[in-house]
Amino acid sequence: MPTIKEIAERSGFSPSTVSYALRDNPRIPEETRDKIKAVAQEMGYQRDAHLGQLMAYLKGRGRKASACPLVWINSTTDPHHWHKTPWAKEFYESASQRAESQGFALSELWVHDPKIPHSRLDDILKARGTRGLILSTPLQGEDWAQWIDWNAYATVILDDPFAMPQFDRVYADYASNMRQAIEQALARGYKKPKVWLSEREDYWTGYGYTYECLRQNHTRPELDALLPPFAGEVTTENVRRWMDEHQPDMVIAPTATVGLRLRELGYRLPQDLGYLAMYVLNEDSEWSGFSQLHTQQSIVAVDRIAVLLQNNTPGRQPHPQKIQIGGEWHEGKTLRPPVYSPVHFKR
User: Fold this and answer.
1) 76-103 pLDDT, tens per residue?
2) What's the pTM value of the predicted model, to 2 decimals?
3) CATH pick for 174-292 out of 1.10.10.60, 3.40.190.10, 3.30.420.40, 3.40.50.2300
4) What is the mean pLDDT of the segment spanning 297-313?
5) What is the Cα Rg of the chain in Å?
6) SS3 of the chain
7) What percent of the chain has pLDDT over 90?
8) Hey, do 68-171+296-323 and 174-292 end up sharing a CATH topology, with the first three levels equal?
């Protein structure tokens, strides 16, 4: 493989210019970079990723490098949401830990702070020296987004299947999780599982639950319809009405909330009725269902920002990536034991 010096001799540029150009350093004009890359490609040059990592280490050795600033955009109405809500804490704390281990410093910006006009959001980000942004729900129809110079930052959307589609995103593999939930139901001998799902929850799952329920009913015509019409607010009376109308022997719901209402109505789980929550906290041993691995989602999001920055490709992506993380099964105590092992069950 040709050396930097050999490429420099062939292209007519200095070795330092060639080195910077092959690493896509913006200090080298794009036209010059393209010329040098063309010569390098013709000569059979390939970048050594391990050498790049070693050089980065050697440059920082013996001195403490300043952490690269990342910002978590809090677009909820609650300034403390990501620190007090259990599932939200899983996201933020793991992102913060991963950021620190990768040489980043993660801070938070609450976009609804009454002291900060939306027109100043981008000024604040740039004043912090922000290089990357992590955004999570909700984002739809909010005017603050238009005040940020998105092309200035490496941005990853977390746990939102639809908002701002020009960026990379990381979220749960909702369809795969529902497929495994239905396989669990059948493996435990349930004959009439039903899915409690609201229209809002359907959106936030990227319609993954709906897709999988319809696919299952299409490929298994012997199954009773898995997905009734959208459910309403989770109240004891609404749950009572829903149960009377659909009479399932097992309920699949987004969280444990419906299960709590069922217990208020006198149902014993799993003696009278099976219950599976599509999301349970990692430390929860009571409810059968899935951890959606929020920690892993945050780790992947931070790592993806690192890649974007290393490749000097901030801003809107021409071919954005969608990275889906499958859930992890928690056996819990709200389902009866399986009769057989689910065919596609991995964990």
Assistant:
1) 899 999 999 999 999 999 999 999 988 8
2) 0.78
3) 3.40.50.2300
4) 94
5) 25
6) CCCHHHHHHHHCCCHHHHHHHHCCCCCCCHHHHHHHHHHHHHCCCCCCHHHHHHHHHHHHCCCCCCCEEEEEEECCCCCCHHHHCHHHHHHHHHHHHHHHHCCEEEEEEECCCCCCCHHHHHHHHHHCCCCEEEEECCCCCCHHHHHCCHHHCEEEEECCCCCCCCCEEEEECHHHHHHHHHHHHHHCCCCCEEECCCHHHHHHCCCHHHHHHHHHHHHCCCCCCCCCCCCCCCCHHHHHHHHHHHCCCEEEECCCHHHHHHHHCCCCCCCCCEEEECCCCCCCCCCCEEECCHHHHHHHHHHHHHHHHHCCCCCCCCCCCEEEECCEEECCCCCCCCCCCCCCCCC
7) 71
8) yes
pLDDT (mean) for 231-256: 97
CATH class of 68-171+296-323: alpha beta
Q: Does domain 4-60 have CATH number 1.10.10.10?
A: no
Question: Quick one: DSSP state of residue 197?
Answer: -
Place of tokens 């929020």: 294
Residue 201 confidence (pLDDT)? 92
Q: Give the per-residue pLDDT at 62.
A: 46
Q: Which two tokens stand for residue 31?
A: 């036209």
Give pLDDT tens digits for 152-175.
Answer: 999 999 987 787 889 999 999 999
